[in-house]
Structures are given as structure tokens and as C-alpha cells.
UniProtKB/TrEMBL annotation:
It is found in: Endosome membrane; Golgi apparatus, trans-Golgi network membrane. This is Uncharacterized protein. It holds the Pfam family Vps53_N. Residues 606-687 form the Vps53 C-terminal domain. GO terms for cellular component: cytosol; endosome membrane; GARP complex.
């Protein structure tokens, strides 16, 4: 391996020493260094050869071998001395060991003789007691005989011992037959020959001595007799054995147990646990019967729950009596092959799905009352009742969650397993249905009662949207609390399967739809005012005459809708959300109307600028009745939205003579070098085509020397040809439809008031007026406005 690597190592060394062409000039130094390394290697080789010769010297090897031989001799000598010492110790202790063996044998012999004497004495006593039926004394003697049998069994090869063993075994069988007769007399309970309970109590002591199998036989016989009537009366195939008679089962057993406690419990030794075994046997028989009954079908859910509740009460009562869990009461019963723990109530778990299905049906019936026309009429009734009561929610939502809470409490009393998780899925299902078929259905418009002939919106839809929004918010919050309660009630391993996040998302979407409905109604209310803007001959105005007539209608419509929203929405954050979007909507529609009304001329632009101030004051008043109470962020948001329109109008109303001054004013207010944006201003201003070329030339000349101008501004996204995007009486305008999209009308939602930090500073600098399709200006289009 080393030989194979040598060429590679040599090449690596050459590469290191001669890394570049300049290394060739140092070849003498490199050669000298290599010579020194060669000398070092030769010296190392010579040293290693000397050590090898010294280690392989025959004289030295002979010395080492002699030392090893001497060491082996010393080891052998030590072994011999150790053997001699061991022999001496054995000779010294041999007598002691013999004495120890003799002592142990003597002790065992004395113990055996003593046990033999005791066995004969105990057997003699037992033989004498048999005719007397003194079972208490008989139990003591028999216990001694039984205990002495085992250690003396190896001596049965001796004839005398074998004779005693056979006689004692015969007497034991005699005693067992006598006890069996006494117990049978007790079990028959013949009124003509009543048993002597004292004799039965003492006979039970003898049973205890006779062994576990016989004791188990006696206990089984007693319990079988006690439950014989139960098996006859409550057969699972008879009427008395059905679910509705489960409480009767437990009542019957309590009577039997009371008789046992009063009359028989004291007859048996406490260690037999006859009472516990009686309860366990009854529970096992009941469990088998109920399994058969439930296997044929549950039937009435209320009967099922009553039977389960009676079973739980029964188990709880006996758990308290024995001061242990009920599954420990039933463990180790007479018929159990192992100590497997179980309860009677556990047999209900696999059938509890019927209860959950019943709740599903109950919810379906409940939901049918909230759907469709009945839901609409109920909603209108609620709106009428709460006309002056302020914000409220749909009563159906509180009824739904009250039902959820009651159902969960009832279910959790019986189980914390899979049925609770299944119930959670049922809850989620009906929350989704409630959202889709009740809340969203309430927002659907009815064409017959939509707008009046004046184009005004119906505030009933705004009120409905407010109530639905409040209800959706209540449902979202309450569903979170319900989720926490469910997770507290269910087993740990099932908690991850429980959640209402999808349903809360649906309620959130419904709240957004409610806001959209309010904005739609606001837009409908403002339509006549926007139509008036289009009808006004702005280019022909001769002077500014205060606020325009349409402003009164516009401000009145905005205030009417805003007042309805403020007084009916419970959460301020949704009032603010509505206000933010309303600002974007109104400014978008206003800007759209202004663009459609071009050319504006100076007086027209000045009049519209004055109108914008009135609209701005109204918009500042949206979240709260007094603008001074509005947050700094909202004020900046409104100012930003109206400010862009105001800036555009200020540029339009500026005189174009001298042209240099007009261009400088554009650069100062707009701040961009965009030729297209400049053309938009000229188009809105209505500048004659003959004058446009001169203004354009000056604009190009001035902007070419100003490096501080931007390439774009808020005018970049301004659509100069919005078209007839909203047909009269259309169900929903693009301004509303585009609220959730990336393409909106000019300035609509270009900045939310939440984009401002609490101190009023801007969080970022997005493009003004949103992302609109860019305007491509042509002289042909402008010709129509000259």
C-alpha cells in the first residue's frame, strides 16, 4: 500500500515545493533542505538497526530465559506450601465439622419427633371431637393436622407413620362430609328445619381449613342460590330484562344485598370477601345481559341514558362502600380467569354512538327552524324588536351554543372517550351549516324589495349585515371556548383530533361578506350623487358657488349608512374596518366620476376641490361622531386617500400660462417625470391640442435636467377610461367585487389606516391608487375632449 502511494506522495511534494514558476529560482534552497531531510532519515534508520541488533543478542535472551525459569520454580514452591497449609487446616477442623453435622442431624431428629408427637396428639383430639360437632375446636385440631402433614410426608415409608396418615386423611374426609351437610342444611333454608347459625359460623371455620378449592365451592354455591331468582326474572329475552328495567335490576339486588348484610354476612369469615364476590357476580351477570340487550339495538336514546345513569349510580355507590374503584370490586371474581378490570357501564361505550346520532338529528330539526323563509322572517322580526335596543345577535346562535353546552355536559358525565370526539365533529358540522345556511343566507338580497325608484338602498340590508356580523363574531369566539371545554372533557390521546379552526375561518369569511354588504349598500346610497357629478357641466362653470348640490345628498347618504353601522356593530374593530374600506370606496367612486366628467377646466377643478373638502370632513366622522376622537392613524389614512385627489385637482386648476410655471407646478406637486402621467393631467384639464405640444416640449426639457424626480407617482395607476363598469341597479359593483382582489378602483384600499403606526408615521411606501392597469394615452382619445 505504501509502495502504491509513493508516486502520489512524491508528486504532492513536488507540487508543494514548486507551486509556481517563481519557485524555480529557489531550487538551490529546496535542494539543500532535501539533503538535510535525507541525512535525518539515514540517522533514524541507523538508530533503529542498532536497537534491533541489541534486542536480538543471544546472550541477553539467555539471561531472560533463566529469569523466567527461576520465576516458575518460585510459583511451584508457593503452590506446594499452600497445599500443605490446606491439609493442616482440614486436619484441625475435621472434628469440628463432624460435630456440626451431628448437631444438625440431632436438631432435625428432635423436630421430627416433636412434630410426630404433635400430629398424633392433634389427630387424637380431632377423632374425639368428631362425634361432638364442636366445629370451632375441630377447626383448630384439623388445622394442626393439615399443617403437620407436609413436613412429615417423607416418613410415610414407615408403616406406623403411614397408618396415622391414612387415619387422619379418613377423619378429614369425615369432617368435610359433616360440614357439607351443615352447609346444605343452611342453603336449603327449610322453615321446618331451620339451621343453627352458630353451627354454620363454626362450620365456616372448618371450611377455611379444608382448603381454597372447597372454600370456593361453598362461596359459589351460596352466591348461585342468592342470584338464582335474578337470572330467572331478568332474562335478557324477557320484558323485565330490557333497558327500561335496568333500574329495577339494581333495586332488586339492593334488597338481596340488604338481606345478606343483615342475616348472612356475619356467618362467613371476613377474608372470604363474600359480599364483594356477590356484587362482582351480580355485576358480571348484568353485564352479559346488557350486552345481549344492546346488541339487538338501543331504541329510545332517553331510555339508553337512563339505564346508563342508573348503572353509573350503582357503580359509584359500591365504589364508596368498598372504598375502592368499582373496577377493583369486580376484579378477581369467582368466574374470572384473571384479574382483568372492568365495569358494567363500559358495555355502553361501544353503543354510545347512538346518543351522538340522536344529537345530530336534534340539531337537524333545530337548524330547519333557522333556514330559508322562516329564517328571513325570524330575522326581520328580531330587527323589528331591537330597532331601538342597539347592537344584538341572532337568538338562534345562542340557542345553538346553549344546546351544545348542555349536550357536552350530558355526554361528559357518561364518557370521555371517542363519543366526545365524535360529538365534536357533529358540532363542527352544524357550525358550518349554520354559517352557510343561516348567516350567509340572511345576507342574500331579495330583488323585490331592493332599491327604491330614487336608487336609494334599503337600510334593512345594512341592519341585517350588522346583526349577521355580530352573530358571526359571537360564534367564532364561543366556538373557541367550546373547543377548550371539549379538550378538557376528552381523553388526552383524543385532544389533537378536536378543533374548530375551519369553522372559525368560515365565520371570518362571513364577517368579511357582511362588511362587503354594508359597502355595497353604501355605494348604492351614493349612486345618485355620483350620477349628479357626471351630469354637471364642469367645463362650463363660470364661478365657484360653495358646495355643490350633490354633496348634500352624498354626505347625507354616507352619514345615514355610517350611523346605522356604528349603532349596530358591537365590536369597534369592525366599525373601523368598515370605515377604512368605506373611505377607499367613496374616494374611488368619486375619483372615477371626476375622470369621466373631464374636461374639468380651472373653475370646475376648483369647485370639485371644494366638494372634496366636504367629503373628507364626512369621512373623518365615519368611525365616531366627532372627528377629534378619531385615531391619528385613521386621520392620516383619510388624508392620504383624499390628498391624492386634491393634489391632482390642484395641478388641474393651475393656469397653463406661463407654460414653464405650469410644468414647474406639476413637478412640485406630482413629483415624477412620467410623460404619460403629464398627458393625463392635460387630458383632465382639457388643454387644447394646439397648446399641448408646447407644454409637452417644456415638460420634457425641464424633467430631463431634474434628477430628483421619480419615474412614477400615484397618477401611474390612474385609469383614464374606467368605462361603464357599473350598470344601473347592478347587484354589486366592481368596487365591491374587487375589495378582496389585487385590482381595485383608483385609491380604493390603496392604504388602510392600519398601515400607519400609532405615532402617525408611515409603515411603508406602497404605490398610490393600487395596482391598476396602466394607462396608454393616445392623442386620438384626447381629441374627443377638446
Amino acid at each position: 500500500m505504501a509502495t502504491a502511494d509513493a508516486p502520489a506522495a512524491a508528486m504532492a511534494r513536488l507540487t508543494t515545493d514548486f507551486s509556481d514558476s517563481t519557485a524555480l529560482s529557489r531550487h538551490q534552497q529546496i535542494h539543500a533542505r532535501l539533503e538535510l531531510e535525507i541525512l535525518d532519515v539515514r540517522e533514524e534508520v541507523a538508530r533503529l538497526k542498532g536497537e534491533l541488533r541489541r534486542d536480538q543478542d543471544p546472550a541477553r535472551m539467555g539471561v531472560i530465559q533463566k529469569q523466567i525459569a527461576h520465576l516458575m520454580q518460585q510459583i511451584n514452591a508457593i503452590r506446594e506450601k499452600a497445599a500443605e497449609a490446606e491439609a493442616i487446616v482440614k486436619s484441625i477442623t475435621q472434628d469440628v465439622q463432624r460435630l456440626d453435622v451431628a448437631k444438625r442431624n440431632l436438631t432435625r431428629t428432635m423436630q421430627t419427633l416433636e412434630r410426630w408427637s404433635m400430629l398424633k396428639h392433634a389427630h387424637r383430639q380431632l377423632k374425639e371431637l368428631i362425634p361432638t360437632k364442636r366445629y370451632r375446636d375441630m377447626a383448630s385440631s384439623l388445622s394442626a393436622v393439615v399443617q403437620l402433614f407436609e413436613p412429615l410426608k417423607p416418613l410415610t415409608t414407615i408403616s406406623e407413620v403411614a397408618d396415622v396418615f391414612r387415619a387422619a386423611e379418613a377423619d378429614r374426609r369425615t369432617v368435610q362430609e359433616m360440614v357439607n351437610t351443615e352447609m346444605e342444611t343452611f342453603f336449603r333454608n327449610d322453615p321446618n328445619h331451620p339451621p343453627d347459625l352458630r353451627v354454620v359460623t363454626e362450620a365456616a371455620l372448618v371450611v377455611d381449613v379444608l382448603g381454597g378449592d372447597y372454600r370456593k365451592h361453598i362461596i359459589e354455591r351460596y352466591i348461585t342460590l342468592q342470584l338464582a331468582e335474578y337470572r330467572r326474572i331478568f332474562r335478557s329475552t324477557d320484558e323485565a330484562g330490557q333497558l327500561d328495567n335496568v333500574p329495577r335490576r339494581y333495586a332488586w339486588f339492593r334488597r338481596v344485598l340488604k338481606h345478606h348484610d343483615d342475616e348472612n354476612a356475619a356467618l362467613f369469615p371476613a377474608g372470604w370477601e363474600v359480599t364483594r364476590l356477590l356484587v362482582a357476580s351480580f355485576a358480571e351477570q348484568t353485564r352479559v345481559d346488557l350486552a345481549n340487550v344492546l346488541g339487538r339495538g338501543v331504541g329510545d336514546v332517553n331510555v339508553f341514558l337512563d339505564a346508563l345513569q342508573a348503572t353509573l349510580d350503582f357503580e359509584a355507590a359500591f365504589a364508596r362502600r368498598f372504598n375502592i374503584p368499582f373496577q377493583d370490586v369486580t376484579a378477581g371474581g369467582l368466574n374470572s380467569s384473571s384479574n382483568t378490570k372492568w365495569t358494567i357501564s363500559s358495555i355502553f361505550d361501544s353503543h354510545f354512538g347512538t346518543y351522538v346520532d340522536a344529537q345530530d338529528k336534534a340539531l337537524a330539526e333545530m337548524m330547519s327552524q333557522y333556514r330559508g323563509a322562516r329564517s328571513r322572517s325570524s330575522l326581520e322580526g328580531t330587527l323589528q324588536e331591537t330597532e331601538n335596543a342597539g347592537p344584538t345577535i341572532l337568538p338562534s346562535s345562542t340557542e345553538l351554543f346553549y344546546f351544545y353546552g348542555q349536550t357536552l355536559e350530558q355526554c361528559s358525565k357518561y364518557t370521555n372517550g371517542e363519543p366526545v370526539a365524535k360529538l365534536a365533529r357533529i358540532f363542527a358540522k352544524w357550525l358550518k351549516i349554520y354559517n352557510d345556511e343561516v348567516l350567509l343566507a340572511a345576507l342574500k338580497r331579495e330583488p323585490a324589495i331592493r332599491r327604491s325608484l330614487e336608487g336609494r338602498s334599503s337600510l334593512a340590508d345594512v341592519k341585517t349585515a350588522c346583526m349577521v356580523l355580530n352573530t358571526a363574531e359571537y360564534c367564532a369566539n364561543t366556538s373557541m371556548q367550546l373547543e377548550d371545554r371539549l379538550k378538557d372533557k376528552v381523553k388526552d390521546e383524543l385532544r389533537e383530533s378536536i378543533g374548530f379552526s375551519d369553522e372559525r375561518d368560515a365565520f371570518t369569511a362571513t364577517k368579511a361578506q357582511c362588511i362587503a354588504t354594508m359597502l355595497r349598500e353604501l355605494e348604492t346610497a351614493c349612486d345618485p350623487a355620483f350620477a349628479a357629478i357626471l351630469k354637471t357641466p364642469w367645463r362650463d362653470l363660470e364661478n365657484v358657488s360653495g358646495r355643490s348640490a350633490y354633496i348634500v345628498d352624498l354626505v347625507g347618504s354616507i352619514k345615514e349608512v355610517a350611523e346605522c353601522v356604528r349603532t349596530r356593530i358591537e365590536s369597534k374593530k369592525y366599525i373601523r374596518n368598515f370605515a377604512d374600506k368605506a373611505v377607499g370606496l367613496v374616494i374611488a367612486r368619486f375619483t372615477q366620476a371626476v375622470i369621466k366628467s373631464r374636461p374639468l377646466k380651472k373653475i370646475g377643478a376648483e369647485q370639485i376641490l371644494l366638494d372634496v373638502q366636504a367629503v373628507k370632513a364626512c369621512l373623518l366622522d365615519l368611525p365616531e361622531p366627532h372627528p377629534e376622537n378619531s385615531s391619528n392613524g385613521y386621520t392620516k389614512y383619510v388624508t392620504k386617500n383624499t390628498g391624492q385627489l386634491e393634489t391632482m385637482l390642484k395641478v388641474i386648476l393651475a393656469p397653463d400660462d406661463p407654460p414653464e410655471g405650469f410644468v414647474q407646478n406639476y413637478c412640485l406637486l406630482i413629483g415624477d417625470r412620467s410623460f404619460t402621467n403629464f398627458q393625463k393631467i392635460l387630458d383632465l384639464k382639457g388643454t387644447a391640442r394646439a397648446d399641448q405640444q408646447k407644454l409637452v416640449d417644456i415638460f420634457l426639457s425641464v424633467t430631463g435636467t431634474k434628477d430628483d424626480l421619480a419615474d412614477t407617482s400615484f397618477l401611474t395607476g390612474l385609469d383614464m377610461d374606467p368605462g361603464n363598469e357599473r350598470a344601473q341597479h347592478a347587484p354589486q359593483s366592481p368596487a365591491i367585487q374587487n375589495l378582496g382582489t389585487g385590482s381595485v378602483l383608483p385609491s380604493l384600499l390603496s392604504r388602510s389606516s392600519t398601515d400607519y403606526s400609532p405615532d402617525g408615521s408611515r409603515a411603508d411606501t406602497p404605490k398610490a391608487f393600487g395596482d391598476f392597469r396602466r394607462f396608454v394615452s393616445t392623442f386620438g382619445k384626447r381629441d374627443g375632449y377638446m
